[in-house]
Amino acid sequence: MMDQQCVQLRQQQQQQQQPPPQQVPSKQQRRPRGWQAVEAPSSLLRTHNAIRDVLEALPPPHELTTSNGKSVIPLGQGDPSIFQYLKPPECAELALVDVLRSKKCNGYAHSAGSEECRRAVAEYYSKGLATNFTVDDVFITVGCTQAIEFCIAALATPGSNILLPRPGFPLYETFCSYMGVKVRFYDLLPEHNWEIDLDMLDMLTDRNTVAMIICNPSNPCGAAYSLEHLSKVVEKAAQLRLPIIADEIYGDIVFEGQKFYPAASLTVDVPVLTVGGLSKRWMVPGWRLGWILVSDPLGVLAKGRVLEGLAKLAQLTVNASTLVQAALPSILQNTPDEFYERSILLLQEGAKFCCKRIQKIPGLECPSKPQGSMFIMVKINMAMFVELRDDIGFASALATEESVIVLPGTAFGTPNWMRLIFAAPPVLLNEAWDRIEAFCNRHRSKC
Ligand SMILES: *Cc1c(COP(=O)(O)O)cnc(C)c1O
Questions:
Q1: Burial of 256 (0-12, 13-18, 19+ CB in 10 A)
Q2: DSSP label of 93
Q3: Helix, strand or coil for residue 290?
């Protein structure tokens, strides 16, 4: 009896040690495909990133300069580091050098991020919000871009749709279309500080709507929502049972007289996935460190296994640089208040200067002044520039004739606007506006 059991057990064990069987084609099926069958999936080829499309369609900078003799002023891309004007805090550079020299950060980190890094993000937000976030509430990602990608992917059930702002950051739509999520746009109101058209949220939401994305302070609009407005937004999300993906990469970058309110701080029931990162506030977009902060007061995301989904997504990719992760705690703890204050002051001056110049140019208008972030949306009265046809014509002629690069509003879903970054040194902004003014004077219709 004993022996028999032993033999059985051993047989079982041997079976378990075999690799699992795999599917093998039958003899008739065994026919290789031809080289002509090698192809990329159409779901991938259909995707596009509107900002990259526009920027990459322009002649390269050196060609612009040789053809018109003017140096390029790149106010198109949202990269504050290109002007070397808003610099990263010194403590960030030191922290990175330290961890590099320690030789302890050359390996892989946990797929959701190193524990120290996640704790640092949790503590940073616990200060601002009246909640105690823990390591488990944080996922570290490769920039805020991947944070957005993960949040959409973790909610993208078949047939679902997501509500996006218009004008809005084009990447949201890029990811949705790749993942087969339908997009529905709610309008931001240019005459009302780019506030959200709340009635549209009611109109657009159905049983397949899985989330809304809000961007505050806003790219491309430069809006920073008031407590009153943002409260109404989260209240609406509560009524409609809509989880919020809050893109707060420009969090705290708000100007005089404004205060920044994190969406997660204003609700006791709506699940909020806050996404952020080092790129914009610390001026190091190339360091590629972002995060997701989970606020799930009623346990909705946990119950729907969305958090488990986020953890799976993290395991699909190897995480952000271990070096930058290791530097993050000291960056968040040691960046002096003066650094933040100075960045805001410089940005605010840039915004003010743009507004002043726009006022003096017939045909251009800025109905709502920037209250935060790094961007200004300028309305182009195309009736006054008939020969340029539309915002794309305007932006490409401005590039070829004046070497000033701006993004046409079409890239953000709003034709006949343009977006500029104002995180540039005053001399450069001044030169850019001199050229834009001359360009407008030259092209303004005579009739
Ligand atoms: C720049 C930007 C991002 C992406 O930030 P990375 O951390 O560089 O990936 C996300 N959202 C908005 C609104 C941005 O402007």
A1: exposed
A2: H
A3: strand
Q: Residue with structure tokens 């609700």?
A: 267
pLDDT by residue (tens digit) across 427-447? Answer: 999 999 999 999 999 999 876
Residue 271 contacts residue 243 (beta carbons within 8 Å): yes
Atom nearest to 142 CA in ligand 1: 9
Q: Which tens digit of pLDDT belongs to each residue from 55-88?
A: 777 778 778 888 888 999 999 988 989 998 999 9
Per-residue model confidence (pLDDT) at position 405: 94
Rounded to 5 degrees, φ, ψ at 413 are: 95, 5
Cα–Cα distance between 217 and 206 in angstroms, integer? Answer: 27
If one residue of 164, 174, 245, 249 were mutated to test the ligand 1 pocket, choosing by the most ligand atoms within 8 A of its CB, it would be 249
pLDDT(1) > 70: no
Burial profile 309-330: b = 16 or more Cβ within 10 angstroms, e = fewer:
bbbebbeeeebbbbbbbbbbbb
The number of residues in the chain equals 447
Residue 266: closest CA among 292, 223, 308, 237: 237
pLDDT tens across 372-421, in order?
999 999 999 999 999 999 999 999 999 999 999 999 999 999 999 999 99
**If DSSP codes are grouped into helix, strand and coil, which group holds residue 138?**
strand
What's the CA-to-centroid distance between 444 and ligand 1, angstroms? Answer: 35
Two tokens at 252? 């705290």
Separation CA 127–CA 13 (nearest Å): 54
DSSP string, 227-264: HHHHHHHHHHHHHTT--EEEE-TTTT-B-TT-----GG
Q: Which residues of 92-127 are buried (b: 16+ CB within 10 A; e: fewer)?
A: beebbeebeeeeebeeebbbbbbeebbbbbbbbbee
Structure token pair of residue 134: 């823990």
Looking from the CA of residue 277, the nearest atom of ligand 1 is 7
How far, in Å, is the centroid of ligand 1 from the Cα of 144? 5
Query: CB within 6 Å of ligand 1 — which residues?
Result: 78, 143-145, 169, 215, 219, 247, 249, 277, 279-280, 285, 290
The answer to which of 6-10, 195-199, 384-388 has the lowest mean pLDDT is 6-10
Mean of all residue pLDDT scores within the chain: 93
Is the pLDDT at 246 greater than 80, yes or no? yes
